[in-house]
Amino acid sequence: MKLNLLPVIMAGGSGTRLWPLSRALYPKQFLVLQGNQSLFQQAHLRLQSLAAEDINVAKPCVVGNEEHRFLVLDQLRELKGEPSSLLLEPVGRNTAPAVALAALQAVAEGDDPILVVTPADQTVTDEAAYTKALQTAVRCAAKGDIVILGITPDRPETGFGYIRTEQAQADGARAVVAFVEKPNLETAKGYVAEGGYFWNSGMFVMRASRWLAALEHFRPDILEATRKSFDVRTTDASFVRPGKAEFSAVPSESVDYAVMEQCPGKPASGFVVRMVPLDAGWSDLGAWDAVWQVSPQDAQGNASQGDALLHNSRNTLVHATSRLVATVGLDNIVVVETPDAVLVADRSCSQDVKQIVNALSLRERSEGTVHRRVHRPWGWYDSIDFGPRFQVKRIMVKPKASLSLQMHHHRAEHWIVVSGTAEVTNGDKVLMLSENQSTYIPLGTVHRLVNPGTIPLEIIEVQSGSYLGEDDIVRFQDNYGRSA
Q1: 459 and 333 in one domain?
Q2: Greatest CA span in the chain, whole angstroms?
Q3: pTM for this one?
Q4: Could you tell me the residue range of the domain that residue 469 belongs to?
């Protein structure tokens, strides 16, 4: 009989240390840092590769943020995939409640699959080794074990927690003796020299019922509160929304603190944690220094992405997104360019980038939250110019998609089609506009933009008025559940 495996992709989080590329409304798991696939897409494809003669892999269960739901769907559809369910956390409550939601969803569908839980923002360079290790973990979990993946350390690292283990057993797993907090450098050197210590990857494998039972044993308050929220959930297609008030009352706790660290040394509990080593070029990409480490480098140790020229520079990372970036005489530096912000940092201090994000938040600046190009379920818009009483946007609408039927109290708009075909509702008229044609929408007029074609529609929108904020909008009809 085949083992039924349910991938659970943890797609929440803001990735503040990869600012300015990663922002709250477009965090690092959805970024393409190399190649042509995002970290989230890479995680999905790796999990689908776990299928074997004795392992059946289901469509993924994704746990994420309401704000990112259409990003998840779009990125899966680019890979011709779709989720079995998309669990939308109304507020962040750390990983233990998030995994509890996934387990409750799995058993509610009448099955007890083996959950393979992974963050969406990690990378590996040896996918064959990844597949072999995860398949080993799945087979161990089928016997009732709770299995964690431990990364074989290649250097002393003070930024990760460690797992202390016993010798490997016949099935390739090791008994976990203890979980160890992030050490200082001398202690970390000792761990690497001694052996038997592994980095905690944040990936783990167990049956859905086993996780619920462990949570019931060690943290019944978390399970009870999560279950209350799940019991009043609403469902819309693949979107599953737990009750907001109920989920807000769930204690915030990580998987490690809630269960994993409770198991070693407590055999009477009946819950044993085992570890499968993973030596696959793993990185959690926790900061720009980690991105540099996993990036292809030239003879001088430089790594670059986008339009970059480096002269007399060493051990430097340049990530350019919208223009040429040139460096001269740099050593051990990170330069990240976006249309509205540029980061220059010493690579050894890249963990401190989150302090910039905190400062932006205190100053109520939008650059910490949203890019100049803002993604919407129908496409995107890019604010390319603005001034007193006017703003210019470039707007892309996906084929067959439409914006809401809406009006504005404080602004009028001019629309000019630059490519594709637009179906425009403008008051009581419906117009078909093609390239170089335009229309004017007076203040207070009900309007809508639709792309009826099979190629993307692009327009230039010129707004003018006394207030140009995104909250000056009254929606009368919307395909994405945003109507008043």
Answers
A1: no
A2: 77
A3: 0.91
A4: 373-477
